[in-house]
Specification:
The chain is α/β, with parallel strands linked by helices. The chain has a single domain, classed as Ribonuclease Z/Hydroxyacylglutathione hydrolase-like (Metallo-beta-lactamase, Chain A). It is 23% helix and 25% strand. The chain has seven helices and 13 strands. It has a seven-stranded mixed beta sheet with strand order 6-7-8-9-10-11-12, with helices on one face. Strands 5-4-3-2-1-13 form a six-stranded mixed beta sheet, with helices on one face. α2 links the parallel β4 and β5. α6 crosses α7.
């Protein structure tokens, strides 16, 4: 079976965007980068904005909707608080939708933005889970994301590194709260419980540039998985970048 073709174009507090290729048409998750940056990255991959068929929005923070106004002629889907979403395209938690030949389930996340969704996306008998911007993962969501083929999953900060930053205490407390972001330790623990033999790729996402690093996030992930006896030998693991395209499409399992 062919791997699902997807790319993370940007991931982090300065902007987020990912794409899934559905028979040459693009399903986009978040448009938190500038139009020019999006156009440039799509061009690098052999696409254009004309290939965008539908856009899923996770929530209304600027690093996820920066260029949304440019795409009002596209089908935009998201929660009820996102004003660019037409009434017929507003999504409800845990309800299954058919969008661009995909079965999509919005997963309600705990983040200080009103409605915030992660997504379970099934296409051609494969499942991709996209979860960022949440303080924790509920047991109900775990039941939806267990055993997916691909995970794009928040691993935002190392708690010690966060507390050593010069950020104000109220911001630090917000980040580590239930409506903030997942720490490396918490994200790795959840992933260690939901990864199965069906899992092909894990991309650690929304990694803080100040309160984390790619190396620290990866080290924590491998350490926690080893502790919980998770075999990663047949899984591609990578950390999404803020500026560079993250591409695992040509890595064979």
């Amino acid at each position: 079976m062919m791997k699902m073709k997807y790319y993370v174009l940007a991931s982090g507090s300065k902007g987020n965007c990912a794409i899934i290729d559905i028979n040459g048409k693009l399903l986009v998750i978040d448009v938190g980068i500038t139009v020019s940056e999006l156009e440039s990255k799509l061009d690098d991959l052999g696409y254009s904005c004309d290939d965008i068929e539908a856009i899923l929005i996770t929530h209304d923070h600027n690093d996820h909707i920066k260029s949304i106004n440019h795409f009002e002629n596209k089908k935009i889907y998201g929660g009820s608080i996102i004003y660019n979403v037409r009434k017929e395209n507003k999504l409800e938690a845990f309800k299954e939708y058919n969008i661009l030949d995909c079965k999509i389930v919005p997963l309600p996340l705990s983040h200080d933005s009103g409605t915030c969704f992660g997504y379970r996306i099934e296409y051609s008998e494969e499942v991709l889970v996209y979860i960022t911007d949440t303080g924790y993962i509920s047991s109900k969501i775990v039941s939806y994301i267990f055993g997916a083929n691909y995970y794009i999953f928040e691993s935002n900060h190392n708690v010690r590194m966060l507390m050593n930053t010069k950020r104000p205490m109220y911001l630090k407390q917000r980040i580590v709260s239930d409506v903030g972001h997942m720490s490396n330790e918490d994200a790795s623990f959840v992933l260690s419980k939901i990864i199965t033999n069906e899992t092909k790729d894990v991309i650690l996402a929304h990694v803080s540039q100040e309160a984390n690093s790619k190396e620290v996030a990866l080290e924590t992930f491998y350490k926690v998985c080893k502790k919980n006896n998770v075999d990663l030998s047949n899984i591609n693991v990578k950390v999404a970048d803020q500026y560079e395209i993250t591409d695992l499409n040509f890595v064979e399992v």
